[in-house]
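Records of this kind hold a single protein each, on a pair of labelled lines. With that in mind, the following record should read easily:
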Amino acid sequence: MGSQNQLFEIADRQQGFFTAKQAEECNYKRSNFHLKLALGEWTQEERGVYRLARYPVTERPELVLWFLWSRNIEDVPQGVWSHETALDIHELSDVMPSKMHMTVPLNFRRRKKPPKLLRLHRNALEDSDIEERQGYKVTTPLRTIIDCVTAGTVADNFIGQAVQQALGRGLLLERELDSLKQTKPEIYQKIKRVLK
């Protein structure tokens, strides 16, 4: 399979985006990247993050862009969309986040300061707390609600709305909520209170 086809397959899984390292793994030389940019085949979106110029525009490309921005030295993205941004992704409640919320590992490091539009939360997430989407990861509805309650940055009416919508659409089960009674009693009590 040719380099172009390999890179397209990678970019297609990431809404047209790819990293410099991914391009190199498809046999593109970094010293020739400027030619792809000059010919208009690629666009540089962020340091080390590119996009196929002719790839169709997707609905939420910023979710993939900043997910790829969060990659570590091995080129593995570390961030998971969470809190208010995850509520928005899951279409739970009418909350309109002013920043994009991302949970990163406790040891997350970047040379440059994060862009102002990102709000980073440091936490260790379990695999069971994460869902994979096309080109990015997001916390599950249950984990999202737990994070929003814990952070205390989302008004009670939005928390109640998110829980009701998640239950109504089958994104959250009653038994999952009930399990919080044992594992996170303070969160359980708050959710029950806002639902009344």
